[in-house]
Amino acid sequence: MNATSPEEAPGRIVLLTTSHRVAPGLLSWPAWQALHAADRVLCADGAHPQLPYLREAGTAVDEASPTAEELVALCAGGHTVVVVATGEGEPALTDGLARLAGSGRVQMPELELLPASYDLPGARLLDLVQVMDRIRVECPFSSQQTHKGLAKYSIEEVYELVEAIEEGDRDELREELGDVLLQVIFHARIAEDDPDAPFSVDDVAAGIVAKLIRRHPHVFGDETASTPEEVREHWLRTKAAEKQRSSVTEGVPLTQPGLALAAKLASRVRTAGLDVPLPPTEGIGYDLLALAIHAESKGVDPEAALRAAARAYRDAIRRTETENGESAAADD
């Protein structure tokens, strides 16, 4: 076997990728090792956010955008060249290297793709925050929106989410979750502009994180819970201590749909162990109230049950229309 001389050694190309969602300079240890051991470090983007940190760490970076042929030539003699990839990932360069390798006419260097920083779960939320920031500033519609103006959209999006859940449509579920999340981010961004009591999406997230930790002492504290019922007891006990409410009706939004409102009040009454008689008044509203309370006592969501029945009624209407060869006219 003939050994390859140092002059003939093909060398090594390391394509270093980084995430813009991670603070610049926070690179993996293998990435720093590759950078320190490299004979050349190249970057096509002179404004790359990593460059100041690399240079501060003593790594010389040349602002260059070599072709695939030029990069292979730089590796001749066993040299290692690290390419700090731009946000697009250097597709022209990698395509060129693939063509050279496929030609069989060039002795190719060792090729390595080295992720220098990784997205953590939830990192794409940072993109959403940045996009919302720009839209809030530059979009004529979004820049004028208020909490009150968006309220109706928030309600609509939640209803569409519930419909996707009940229909079992996974693709629609993913999209509707995004629409609901947009409402949260939008409202938080509007709140930043409040002159008297501003808060940000970070404040929103910090608040719910603190609440979840407080209300899960069996996870983050010393208490124990082995059943869902015990978890619910922890939650209700902690919530009661936090809210210090004088009535079980406090915190129940009266603007929610009627059946849901009735069921929520019934749930509060049952949880508190109160014996509250129904108002001795006749009428359809009171009949519906009694049905909602009965459903809640049986563990049935009356709103969901009525929606399911309404969907079945809708399907029956469509079947009748098809059978009769008719199309129902919209009544609005």
From TrEMBL:
<feature type="domain" description="NTP pyrophosphohydrolase MazG-like">
    <location>
        <begin position="145"/>
        <end position="220"/>
    </location>
</feature>
<keyword id="KW-0378">Hydrolase</keyword>
<dbReference type="Pfam" id="PF03819">
    <property type="entry name" value="MazG"/>
</dbReference>
<protein>
    <submittedName>
        <fullName>Nucleoside triphosphate pyrophosphohydrolase</fullName>
        <ecNumber>3.6.1.9</ecNumber>
    </submittedName>
</protein>
<dbReference type="InterPro" id="IPR048015">
    <property type="entry name" value="NTP-PPase_MazG-like_N"/>
</dbReference>
<dbReference type="InterPro" id="IPR011551">
    <property type="entry name" value="NTP_PyrPHydrolase_MazG"/>
</dbReference>
<dbReference type="InterPro" id="IPR004518">
    <property type="entry name" value="MazG-like_dom"/>
</dbReference>
<dbReference type="GO" id="GO:0047429">
    <property type="term" value="F:nucleoside triphosphate diphosphatase activity"/>
</dbReference>
<dbReference type="InterPro" id="IPR035996">
    <property type="entry name" value="4pyrrol_Methylase_sf"/>
</dbReference>
